[in-house]
Amino acid sequence: MSARLEAEHLYKVFGRRPDQAVERLREGADREELRADGTTAAVIDASFSIAPGQIFVVMGLSGSGKSTLLRMLNGLLEPTAGRVLFDGQDLTALGDRELREVRAHKISMVFQHFALFPHRSVRENAAYGLEVQGVPRAERLKRAGEALALCGLAGWEDSWPDELSGGMQQRVGLARALATDADLLLMDESFSALDPLIRRDMQDQLLELQQSLKKTIVFITHDLNEAMRLGDRIAVMRDGRIVQTGTAEDILVRPADDYVSSFIQDVDRSRVLTASSVMDTDLRGDEADCACETATPDTPFNELCAISARLTHAVAVLDKDHELVGVVPRQRLVAFLGDEQHEPTPCVSPREGGEKVTAHA
């Protein structure tokens, strides 16, 4: 599958002689050396690709460069070096007018602060992106109403923004982005200003919408639990660089360095890990009864614990062809729950590392 969005060796440098600064970075200079010369390297050699329909989360602490990176993806900031490709089109090569057309029709942005017009109704706020596109009034109000209904705001169309709670105002911002039917949504700390319960509700809303809309989404956050919950793939940034990219399980099970390891210490692993990341693939005879209740590689960790509690032996993990690909002894589950620093051996399918074992369901 071809990528919907690609970043190729992106750099963003603020200050004097940015092109020279990029060359120095390529030659091995670090951020602090440039800062001493009055130059700030906000993003350094960032590369990734995002498949259609994927939620790609960029996370990092304040000052890591994640918001600057996001603004280069839709041309709000021009890269000092590197390219952004959207459906194969080089956005960095477009003129201002062409770039505005792309932003108006193909890329929508949802900001941290709701940015609603106080003198416009909820429906008119949701229709604003369509107004920019030049869509006739009747059509844009109809589409805005449909987007508001998708976001759980049916019945609030004629209200004013100050009559809505913070969570509801953020839903209007999301509806405004969805109404344009853009292929790509850029979400910059979109839920960070919300209370924890409302924030989780908005995460649920986004995941529910994604099930049907299948948008390509770049989501910026400093909250690791939010990243783990939303991201199909996650990029971890530090000091302007992407230090690791992978699934939530990749990052939890195989952190790239000590920085990532320290970052994930407080994550509730039981909400992220699945059978594939904890199973033992070193199969040695009858270690599990495959005639009893079994799991699949995608079985969530919490559900795996419940299955294990009902059995007197290890849980068999079967793939879609009912072939045994691993087992999960109870003591392995206990180890994962009790030792936050436990790192399992990377999983290798028996078909890659040994004879295929077929189980009969």
UniProtKB/TrEMBL annotation:
NCBIfam families: proV. The keyword tRNA processing does not apply. Residues 352-361 have a biased composition (Basic and acidic residues). Keywords: ATP-binding, Nucleotide-binding, Transport. PANTHER family: GLYCINE BETAINE/PROLINE BETAINE TRANSPORT SYSTEM ATP-BINDING PROTEIN PROV, GLYCINE BETAINE_PROLINE BETAINE TRANSPORT SYSTEM ATP-BINDING PROTEIN PROV. InterPro entries: AAA+_ATPase (IPR003593), ABC_osmolyte_uptake_ATP-bind (IPR051921), ABC_transporter-like_ATP-bd (IPR003439), ABC_transporter-like_CS (IPR017871), Gly-betaine_transp_ATP-bd (IPR005892), P-loop_NTPase (IPR027417). Belongs to the ABC transporter superfamily. PROSITE patterns: ABC_TRANSPORTER_1, ABC_TRANSPORTER_2. It comes from Streptomyces prunicolor. It comes from the Bacteria. Gene3D superfamilies: P-loop containing nucleotide triphosphate hydrolases. Residues 5-264 form the ABC transporter domain. GO terms for molecular function: ATP binding. Coiled coil: none annotated. The keyword Nucleotide-binding applies. It holds the Pfam family ABC_tran. Residues 341-361 are annotated as: Disordered. This is Glycine betaine/L-proline ABC transporter ATP-binding protein.
